[in-house]
């Protein structure tokens, strides 16, 4: 039986949050994503990031068209000239290591200054066409600037609304820069006949807020977060390497292998980067509709197909078209990878993890083109396409690890959640605090109530199509019947938990009973830390109910009967708080829908009439079982049998009659008496205990009552008016009054329910008001028969009227004084010589007086 551990319950009660903290926790904590146009300052920031990526694209795409001319200018081999691709790796590596520190220290504004500053420094050095080693070193600064901007702007825009579309535009601007760069460089060199370094005169003219983030160490080495960071990093390493290697060496490939002219070959590079730009913009709007997972797989297959055409079809024009379409399908890879990473990683790690992955991936722009150059030196530039296809396949495999691995884990996790919930109903070891509700020898003295067969059928799941409210006074045996029924079936198919007035504690108890973990059940669980959900306890309970419903559907299909969920003491959930009302509504809605589908039978137990009154308002499939005191014959027979078994004695008939007259048939009282050696003393103790409880809660204070006790004394006084009628019957009987009559006598409709909550009176399912028990009835009778009680009741009535009159007079006087009125009090004699007091009230523009 999956229920709450008593030790845990006490610990939870001690650790339950304060009302203020609980209210804060129960507020929704979802943060609305920033938009590109809200706040308004984001518009200019977006334009600045677009310009930054335009410069980055122009920077990266310039290497390819310039390689043939760098070879000639410096008289270099393929391997040595490829160092211009390798040297930015130092900058990217430095950016990967320092990105998080710079971002948290200087913020996005700091990145916005440092990145273009590094670009400007590199381009100034290039403009003076220094010796080749200095040129190689200058590209380190360009790589550092690229790495900082790449990580910062990807992380910022990746968290915005419509991130796929915005990242598509952002990287589309990168592609446009990459389109313009080869076009301008090729035109300057081939058409204008100027040296290669004139291109950097143009680049020299182009260089142009902050979220807290988790540490880089956490992103790289902490549990599952490291998996996402490193897999994304290697994916981007391969992708960026493909992009820059293809864009960088395609001009040489078209000139040397496809025997194209210089200008035409340069335009092929322009076509490739134009494809990149168009793909990022156009496919950026398609990707969110088909999903990043499917998009990366489909785009990879198309890109590989275009690569095969470029490799196997020895035609200049076919190769030019193929490489353009290859760029088109490669374009969305980077934005899609960033979006996947933002979904898989906690928000606090977005800047550090995505920044590292982007900078590490940028290293692919340095290493892989250099590798192509080194191989080309030995084997010829025709190795470009086999190398690109192999790298594309490797990148696809990395993407599949990131996506399908996470999806596979997601499916496994969902099934694991449902299996754990199912095991909470079956294959369990009981740790119920209800196992100790009755003594170890309960089997020897268990009073079989007449409702027990019905309870057995409910717990076995044979009463499908309804949910149940079992209510009655405390101690009538509601929970004992349920526990007894659960023991008979070894708790199979049943879960029981205790309700609580704190919704967070109820959430924990429900999770423990169902073995349900309230953590984020999303795709990245395999790859990232499974963090608690952002949201309210009520949303967590709803998610637990969703999973429970799936288990109930499976169970119904395999076993042909519903599961049973018992929520004990539901009266603890208060309907006078917003969270309490919402929780009750959620539970009843679920109970109704599950009963309609015969999926799960919910059983509520309650000690209070209030719960029945609340649930009846919206109940369509609720059955109510009102558990009352057992019959006289059953109580007497059970008591005789127990005494004979335990003490080897028979209880005299006179003693049994006296017991009945003192405590009635309340099951908890009978159980307490049966285990006592001195029966009559125990009866007297029970009666005295009930009497003290009644006097503690409802005693009237008389003429000396303080004004502060007025509200409490009002319902005590009104209760006394009704109890005098109830007390007129014999002790062993509980006379009833219709609820509306009790409300009329008390002059307030809410007082009977308040007294019911205090276990002073009982209200049954027929709306009849009685004393809560025979000992309570005896207390009514004894107190009402005391000498002087009528005088005390009258004195209390007079004092309440006096306080009420004083409050009204004070209220009127305060209103008059607030309106600038004045009171004058004087003594005078009347016509017969009597003394009168005259009180005159003067308004600002009128005068009135009265006397008595």
UniProtKB/TrEMBL annotation:
One of its GO terms (cellular component) is membrane. Residues 464-631 form the AAA+ ATPase domain. The keyword Acyltransferase does not apply. Residues 1-29 are annotated as: Disordered. Its main location: membrane. One of its GO terms (molecular function) is transmembrane transporter activity. Keywords: Membrane, Transmembrane, Transmembrane helix. InterPro entries: AAA+_ATPase, AAA_16, HTH_AAA, MFS, MFS_trans_sf, P-loop_NTPase. Residues 1-27 have a biased composition (Polar residues). The chain crosses the membrane at residues 76-99, 120-146, 166-189, 228-251, 263-283, 295-313, 319-341, 353-375, 387-412. It is a multi-pass membrane protein. The keyword Transmembrane helix applies. It is found in: Membrane. This is MFS transporter. The lineage of its organism: Eukaryota, Fungi, Dikarya, Ascomycota, Pezizomycotina.
